[in-house]
Design goal:
heterodimer, A: about 80 residues, mainly alpha, elongated, B: about 210 residues, Rna Polymerase Sigma Factor, Chain: A, Arc Repressor Mutant, subunit A, 2 domains
Chain lengths: ~80, ~210
């Protein structure tokens, strides 16, 4: 089946996740081969996801882990004598 | 060799059995996840940290009720979500109805054309400004979309785990995730474009 751009956009997310059937994937790939606009949209979306998963993008507050474990230690109580 | 899941199950059994201080070890791999989950709901760093602490303490107190058929990460995520929502309700009693209204709204979920993108090398992703822009864009997503996006793309839970943690169907998770990603692509497109080297006349069609 020949897909138009709008159709491809609807499946971008599932295409990235690999959760569409083989036929649709093939149709999308055929479209991407000759459509620079859709290829660029796919690339940019994918790169946004790479950046999102990068630990440096969403950093934890400085000292978060230390404070968390201090609080937890208080909750757990003193360690039993060994 | 013992799998990570089996090691975790053993750790949980030992904690429930009385070796309480092992909870520090159990929670360590999930600290980041708990914080980001709460942050996706409360959208405020100080609240997110308090909420994350509270969620971890709750998980510790209720570990005995954790059923081993479930996945610890999903169980913990659910606790973090509940903690975030509790805080949100306190801060803003109307939030829930507003959220639902926002979801009903028809939006434009078509991506932005960005033909220059191919010219942006992956190294451009190293830029601090781009990270800042992405953080802001994620914070500005409608709440329902941000929560799904956080669990799926930040914490890398799968569709079923995300659905379970948020009490949604997998279909709804997919739709919200798709919209969230497209909204981000759209919002970041102008930024990405300006980050690209100027290539006048090249690919300048049909924008």
């Amino acid at each position: 089946m020949k897909l138009d751009c709008k159709h491809v956009w609807e499946y971008i997310s599932e295409y990235i996740d690999g959760s569409i059937d083989a036929q649709l994937r093939e149709d999308i790939e055929r479209h991407l081969e000759h459509c620079e606009i859709c290829a660029a949209i796919l690339d940019s979306t994918r790169n946004i996801l790479i950046l999102t998963a990068d630990d440096r993008t969403f950093e934890l507050p400085v000292g978060y882990s230390k404070r968390l474990h201090e609080r937890l230690a208080k909750e757990i109580g003193p360690e039993p004598d060994v | 060799m013992q799998t990570a899941a089996a090691r975790e199950a053993e750790l949980i059994a030992r904690i429930v059995g009385g070796e309480k201080e092992l909870f520090h070890e159990l929670i360590r791999p999930y600290e980041r996840m708990v914080y980001l989950t709460v942050l996706s709901i409360v959208k405020n760093e100080a609240d997110a940290e308090d909420g994350a602490q509270e969620a971890v303490i709750n998980a510790y107190r209720h570990l005995g009720s954790f059923r081993s058929e479930a996945k610890f990460s999903t169980w913990l995520t659910t606790i973090a979500i509940n903690e975030g929502k509790k805080r949100l309700r306190k801060a803003k009693a109307l939030e829930n109805s507003l959220e639902e209204e926002a979801e009903e709204k028809e939006g434009d979920y078509t991506p932005a054309s960005l033909t220059d993108w191919r010219g942006v090398p992956l190294e451009a992703l190293e830029r601090q400004e781009l990270r800042d822009a992405l953080r802001k864009a994620v914070a500005s997503l409608p709440d329902n979309y941000r929560q799904v996006f956080t669990l799926r793309d930040l914490e890398e839970l799968n569709t079923e785990e995300t659905a379970e943690a948020l009490g949604l169907t997998p279909g709804v998770v997919k739709v919200r995730l798709h919209r969230a990603r497209i909204l981000l692509q759209k919002q970041l497109a102008p930024f990405l474009k300006s980050a690209a080297p100027a290539r006048k006349g090249f690919f300048r069609r049909a924008l």
